[in-house]
Amino acid sequence: MSKTPELIQPDRGQAATAIHLVDKAGFADWAKTLTKGQRAALEAQKFDGSGYQVGIVPDGDGWFAVGGVANPDELSSWCMAKLAEALPEGTYRREGGEPGPALFGWQTAQYRFARYKDDDKPAGPRVLLTKDAKAIEPAVAEAQAAMKVATLVNTPAEDMGPAALEAEAEALAKAHKAKLSVTKGEALEREYPMVHAVGRAAAREHAPRLIHLTWGDEKHPVLAIVGKGVCFDSGGLDVKPAAGMLLMKKDMGGAAHALALAGLVMGAGLKVRLHLLIPAVENAIAGNAFRPGDVLKSRKGLTVEIGNTDAEGRLVLADALTRASEEKPDLILDFATLTGAARVALGPDLPALMARTDETAQALLDAGKANDDEVWRLPLPESYREYLKSDIAGINNSHTNGFAGASVAGLFLDKFVGDGIDWAHFDTFAWRPAAKPGRPKGGAALGLRATWHMLRSRYG
């Protein structure tokens, strides 16, 4: 992962290559300020100001860069990202303005996951200057959090199992002087029976556990963040087809988001009492795997009939949400790569948001829109609760009619959140199937910035 602090630096008048930002509508007028030779150079590069275009303009013994954007007066997180990807190593300064929100994409554009493969010719850092020194620290923190999600999700399951998630939480706790407790073995079976049941078939080195980090003044309002940590999902005895398993290293994407968000909360010193809970398991196949038709007892005491062992994420989240509710939190947020139905409905780029209160939902929607991290609200319809009825248990973990899969999964989780607690659930893909400027292919933080900016507004 790139060392992002060096990619954004305060502008103290040091030498830097200029970057001009233009849009297609204003390009012709801007080009009139150039020499004939400079215009010819841009024409040879077929530069016309279209979005994400990059041009190099000779200037005496040197050169400057020009980037095409939608609107030079209203920059987005991504409008300078293509420049950060395409320009050579060096230091750059936006001419005639500040980068503003583009500081984020400038950093994420230079992210590379190189744990297992070194680039043949690794590019040197492209440094961007800004006179707004106060913007640097938060921009770097956000970019580092997003890239942390990407790195955790990109790492294969053999190296990112439950123990590795525990190690990530331990490092986070050490960095912020937080307290970490981990429940395993017989204690896990007793206290978090569904977490244990889902993970018990995994090899010993990938044994299930409940990771619980606490931080902050106990007098402050409790914020609980819960992340689904299914480090690999075979589907269990309801085994997935081979194609369905190819990306299942990313099934711990909810835990990755939760860890990154917790780091932002603690790093900024928000006035909350933080509880981070990650049920970390591998949904494996073995003689002791839980079965379709089994009835599991939950931490809450509610019994759950297993309609499908591939609907395991909601089971481990249920025990974690029950534990979070015991703290009487002001707010619970959970992240999970939960349903294919959410992806069918919204595609890979839009996390599905479900929330109990309109106020919290709207705050998240607004924060996402303002920070280039849009989320989309789906309902929690009371009438669909009947889809989860069981003839022999308190609830079934999977419905069979195929309707409203994301919302029905949300309704299952809602049963395990305490009454009257403000709760929001993100069904996120945590993956980008194709690269875009500033957004590499692979693990992706989707919903992280929306949530972070909402929390800063609420508790900052």
Secondary-structure blueprint:
Blueprint: E1 8-10, E2 17-22, H1 24-31, H2 36-44, E3 54-59, E4 62-68, H3 81-86, E5 90-94, H4 102-108, E6 126-130, H5 136-154, H6 162-176, E7 179-183, H7 185-191, H8 193-199, E8 209-215, E9 222-227, E10 229-233, H9 242-245, H10 253-268, E11 273-283, E12 295-297, E13 303-305, H11 313-325, E14 331-336, H12 340-346, E15 352-355, H13 358-370, E16 376-377, E17 395-396, H14 405-414, E18 423-427, E19 431-432, E20 442-443, H15 448-459
Parallel strand pairs: 1-6, 2-4, 2-5, 5-6, 9-11, 9-14, 10-11, 13-17, 14-18, 15-16
Antiparallel strand pairs: 3-4, 7-8, 8-11, 12-13, 15-18, 19-20
Helix pairs in contact: 4-5, 5-10, 6-10, 7-8, 8-11, 10-15, 13-15
Written description of the protein model:
The protein has helices spanning about 25-30, 35-45, 80-85, 100-110, 135-155, 160-175, 185-190, 195-200, 240-245, 255-270, 315-325, 340-345, 360-370, 405-415, 450-460, and strands at about 10, 15-20, 55-60, 60-70, 90-95, 125-130, 180-185, 210-215, 220-225, 230-235, 275-285, 295, 305, 330-335, 350-355, 375, 395, 425, 430, 440-445. The protein has about 450 residues and is of the alpha/beta class. The chain has 2 domains: about 5-130, Leucine Aminopeptidase, subunit E, domain 1 (3-Layer(aba) Sandwich), CATH 3.40.220; about 140-460, 3-Layer(aba) Sandwich (Aminopeptidase), CATH 3.40.630. The strands form 4 sheets. Strands 7, 8, 9, 10, 11, 14, 15, 16 and 18 form a 9-stranded mixed sheet that branches. α6 (about 160-175) packs parallel to α10 (about 255-270) and α8 (about 195-200) packs antiparallel against α11.
